[in-house]
Design brief:
Largest sheet: 6 strands, mixed
Shape: globular
Order of helices and strands: EHEEHEHEE
Structural class: alpha+beta
Helix content: 10-25%
Strand order of the largest sheet: 1-6-5-4-2-3
Number of strands: 6
Length: 164
Amino acid sequence: MMKERELLIRFKEYKPEELTPEDKSLVNIAIDSASNAYAPYSQFRVGSAVLLSNGLVVKGNNQENAAYPSGLCAERVAMFYANANYPESSITAIAVVVVDSEGNVIEQNISPCGSCRQALAESEMRFKKPIKVLLASKKSVLIFNSIEDLLPLSFNQGDLGLSK
């Protein structure tokens, strides 16, 4: 017999001024990084900041290329740099933000693309630790406790518990 199921996505929504000092710092680093994005085609300037378990913060921004899709998203730029240079350090948090051409944070919260979500999920599986995800906008910051909240049916997640 067919069953209809639901998936819940849990997150907390904060005003930017309500963030902890650590989270505010991570968002500000992502904002700074977004201003250095190379986005001549889309003008969509994304910045990310990854907090590692060793306390270091790694920045990333989107890098476009005329030979689309050869560019790379801000999230994966930061994650792959972190994994290449600090392979023993897990990612504990990532902040993602978009700025306009004047460097102002946009009004909408944006979310990582599917490829970035899967790369974050892979990192969670690799280190067996959740990654806190902060999606910042001018008006609010959405905080997810794990990438599983943004990608509930990711690859390699094992038993999804749907047969029950």
